[in-house]
Amino acid sequence: GSVGAVTPEGATWDKVIGDWPRRGLGAVSNFDEDALRSLVAAAHGAGLRTAIHTAAPETPGMAVRAGVDSIEHGLFLTETDLEMLGGRGGAWVPTIAAMEMLAAALGADSSGGRLFAEGLANVRRMLPHAAAAGVKVMAGTDLALQHGEVAAEAVRLLDYGLAAEDVLAAMTTTPREFLGETGFVIGRPADFILVDRPDLLTALARPRLVVRCGTIVRDDR
Asked: pTM of the prediction?
């Protein structure tokens, strides 16, 4: 059938559930590549960018070729996918903590558990290539981490091979730039944190000062 885009007022993104688990099979794609390409074209035509949830082996490659802007989870991205995604300034949000949580919950002997374990091993291989390919890697939490705990994902990104400077960018400047937000602007309420410098990535979990929309919400100075 035809694929169209409904654009609620003020919407800027279209989120696609690219695959979903089936009992005994693990994650299975919900669309073929032509359908994804039609969906992305409709979304882009409506002024929306697209993001896709994907954990199945075949989905991320189809999504990248179809023009999806941001890959969420993306356990089975390849170097070729990353080069194509990075070439157009696309993003990858691996959500490693969430994927590890699901792998543990499913169990190592289940089809889903084996799929997630294989996918996480691939993430470990691919992350070092992502930044070099120009992919905008970003830290995300999904179901595994509570609000304010995203620094735990930064530690996982580092453990999985992303360089420290790229991990810091994944936590700070990259998401803001990807979403089209500017830096500090005179007269506009600011968002920022202050941390102790010596162990920066660890310190991100314990900021000394948090300012949100120009209001101090935490002050441990």
From this structure: 0.87
